[in-house]
Amino acid sequence: MASGPVPPITLNRKVLLGVSGGIAAYKSALLVRELVKAGCEVQVVMTPSAHDFVTPLTLATLSKRPVLTDLFARDGSGQWNDHVHLARWADVMLVAPATANTLAKMANGLCDNLLIACYLSMPGGAGGPGSRVFVAPAMDLEMWKDTSTTANLERLRERGVRTIGPESGELASGLSGEGRMSEPADIVAALAQALVGNSRLRGRTVLISAGPTQEAIDPVRYIGNRSSGRMGFALAEEAALRGANVHLVAGPVALRTDRPGIHRTDVVSAAEMAEACRSLASACDAVIMSAAVADFRPKRSADSKIKKGGGVLDIELEPTEDIIASLSAQRPAGQVVVGFALETNNELAHAQDKLARKKLDLLVLNSLQDPGAGFGVDTNKVTLLAPGTDPAELPLMSKAEVARAILDRLETLFPDA
Ligand code: CTP
After folding, report:
1. Minimal CA–CA distance to 140: which of 24, 19, 20?
2. What is the pLDDT of residues 246-279, one digit of tens each?
3. Which atom of ligand 1 sits closest to the CA of residue 350?
4. Number of the ligand 1 atom closest to the C-alpha atom of 327
5. Most exposed residue of 108, 269, 278, 341, measured as fewest CB within 10 angstroms of its CB?
6. Domain region containing 116
7. Four-CA torsion 270, 271, 277, 282, nearest 10 degrees
8. Residue in 354, 355, 364, 365 to alter for ligand 1 test, most ligand atoms within 8 A of Cβ
């Protein structure tokens, strides 16, 4: 669980780090370290002149990925680095250091190296508001004060590119003044402030279960349900984006996630899900059980495939463990427990009963009566119930939007809220 008053900086982003050729490039090694410490995956793209200031080997070793510089391999192999793919992979592009030359190219649409090609390929990045591009300028005082640099930066800011620094201090020329690249830790803190903000999930650990469970009848057949896991995965993605360390326990689903900050455990049966959740829950600040756990399992699972025989087949079922009820009963102080309920009739009454019976802090009610809600669709319509408050009925939204609404509410339930 989160300890101490200052949560660690967690970004959980895929960062395309553009390193251009200035003396501040020597700080890039530390910057990669700080980004990795903040839970980021880092892909370094260097301009050719950046190689004069820091070796690609250093940055490749720290980022655990090959460093890319050329648009096209110069060995006649026909290999090229796909700037479009790189830009789509990234959540964020950070150009640090951003030299006067690179800023000028970015502002004026020149495209003679891989770094700039990536910048121009950022979806919504090269233009338009909501840009996901940040620059940390670094240059000498007169270059920084030059009207062309000011104009270039103004142009980039108008397109939504955000600047971090520079700071005042001693410069490589020996002069003192503005133009020094911000320190790596300060750059990462500024990114976190811009992207994660003051979410109460930042630095907290959250357990989220998702998808169905399968209860074996024989080696071929099982009892399952129609849950796709999409709601739970949307919650895991959103929690990680808010800076949480997420444990995702997933039943058999056809979903994948490559979001940094999500640690996934795959399970099949309710018993496996119970075991996985139990081993993780005590260290978590919040538990969100969005999984559709089977309530019953065959008392015996046949060792070999059951043959038709001709008669009626009776399968005796026994109850599974109510995972959320036992986690809630054994929860550490301050842990917030959130459950889901899918109902088909008397929805509110059943949901209120579940909220009280399982001693939950929040219950997310889905009704199969609502068009656009439930299994296998990208939208959901839910009502949030918490002890002592009126039910809050939310409109039909995408599962990503529902995830945001649930986590907004969850954030108000932490003891320090
Ligand atoms: N749940 C659980 N373990 C189970 C069954 C359900 O942890 N064995 C959790 C679900 O993940 C969900 C909540 O309990 O967060 C409610 O699930 P639901 O199936 O709606 O409730 P049940 O208690 O099974 O009640 P019923 O089936 O009678 O509606």
Report:
1. 24
2. 999 999 999 999 999 999 999 999 999 999 999 9
3. 29
4. 7
5. 108
6. 14-197
7. 140
8. 354
